[in-house]
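[agent] plan:
  1. take the single chain provided in the ticket
  2. run structure prediction with default settings
  3. attach structure tokens to the ticket
  4. add a short note for the reviewer (M.T.)
[agent] executing step 1
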Amino acid sequence: MTQQNHPAAEAAPAEPNPFFETWTGAFEMPPFGAIAPAHFMPAFERAFAEHDAEIAAVTAQAEPPSFTNTIERLERSGRLLDRVASVFFNLAGAHTNDALLEIEREIGPKLAAHNNRILQNDALFQRIDALYRARDTAGLTAEQKRVLDRYHTMYKRAGAGLDAATKARLAEIAQRQATLGTTFSQNVLADEQGYTLTLESEEDLAGLPDFVRAAARSAADERGMIGKDLEGKHVITLSRSSVEPFLQFSSRRDLREKAFRAWIARGDQGGKTDNKAAIAETVALRAERAKLLGYETFAHYRLDDAMAKTPDAVRDLLDRVWTPACAAACADRDAMQELVRQEGGNFKIEPWDWRYYAEKLRKVRCDIDEATVKPYFQLHHIIEAAFYTAFKLFGLTFERRKDVEAWHPDVMAWEVLGPDGRHLGLFLGDYFARPSKRSGAWMTTLRDQEKLTGPDVRPLVINVMNFNKGGDGQPTLLSFDDARTLFHEFGHALHGLLSDVTYPMVAGTSVLTDWVELPSQLYEHWLEQPDILRRFAIHARTGRAIPDDLLKRLIDARNFNRGFTTVEFVASALFDLDAHLLKDTNGFDVGAFEDAELAKMNMPAEIVMRHRPTHFAHVFSGGGYASAYYSYMWSEVLDADAFAAFQETGDIFHPETAKKLYDHVYSAGGRSDPESLYLAFRGRLPTADALLKQRGFAPATTTARA
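[agent] step 2 finished; step 3 output follows
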């Protein structure tokens, strides 16, 4: 590898930099109060230089390659870079500002170039390849074999071993993709930050229950829009937790349309925040990358390193779900259209009407409505419910820690203890929406679990969400879907917290994309259990537990509107798959392609994709889910079958089943391939029938293995 000089990193900066100091705070958390944007670039530059030197030392060894002198040294390298990057990208997503946005634009291509220098280092790859070829006779443990396999796969997929010209082009592509991904995400953030729908009169607030009004007032207050006028203002933002309740309850059809159109137009409004050109270039670069690496299309390249393996396997699953989901959605649409007629409305249901009339239809069919249910789902109680479930399954306890310094005053921290009282990690929850935070919900880490650099390095795990904070000292209320999101992300958090592996390469959520959603989606099942709801669904005003009749209606209604949610998801997944199956990307017009895709799948006109391309961050902001958005549904095949393992025992916390779940899923990281892990847990592989049954669709006569 040609070493790069980093003059800025050769000497310590003139001023102290927290990244070059020992962190002595609780749990060795980053000292966020001392970290300023100016610290990041010097820290990144020094980290690049240190990492380059570590790699050079590996390749300069005269000794033949061994797992210890090559793979373990690679695993130990880049620690400063990991430290700096984990803090930076957490802030870039959860609490950004103009200075961080500027650094993000600069560091993306630099980080890509640095990684490519390492991944395309021929001398390093020769050592890895020699170890890989001798893997069966080297006396390696099962985990070491898996780590070696992941290294070999990673380097091959980055172009190691190819000719110099091809590697140079792959490096150029990677750097450009990093820039495009940052541009894409910042454009979406700018559109989200730049829009508010202000509600100034009682007429504007028509139909909105108290909890939606309180959240809208809190959003206005956070933006400094409430003055001495006690009536103040109310604001709807483009955060999903703000706009969806508005669409669900507002009786102002004109305002629903206005908010909905702004919501789906993120990244698609022309001007400097328009993402269509970035998408076109990204799709073309991905196709070129795949071809250079010997694959037919980018989808073939991406899925070759996944459980699904092939685009055909993904399409088989999506097609299998599409037909019954579309039929269910269209039946609901017709029923809602009848409600419009009964009310004397003379209009056709449009996408901005769906949630409003779905809420009315749910009241008719299920005798339940969000305004009745939501007061029972207080954020602090649902957090307690997630913790209680972890206690019942795995014996975990959570102790609140107020001595932990985080990046925002709203962030809460808990020390996680095992059944023997042993420290397992730190869990941080950043739950509330704010203008400095990107939309969505995610799990990330500031430090991963491993045993290579210490007896047992324990993780620092984060959940980030975007719930509307309760206004005027009132508790934060969640919808049932919000509560499910909290359980989902906490399932990811447990995957990181319970990790019990030696090597960082396979720690926690460092697994294949269509396996990583199993621990999160499986955890959602416990939220729906009567024992959990009776204990934690407590009314915010009366303090009473949810009554049994309402509980039964809530559970019975869990599949209401499932046709709609399935259609919007599958449409996004099919778009993602087909866009990355393109061989000829010249002149790619994402708008025309989107229209053609929707027409090809006969998408109901009243539904839009869950993520339209111009704000499809899963796919175009970094690309972690490119050609892999299907993963949520692939993992749902697994999670439906996995929860059935508990149901079959008659005990949703069955100790022996929970122990196998801990051993082979939550603590296992990526120490083995996913099929082997699932077989060790369940004894067999599932079919898609469990998913169809879970979503309320009649199983088909044939089966498809996931």
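[agent] step 4 note for reviewer: The longest helix spans residues 311-342.
[agent] ticket updated
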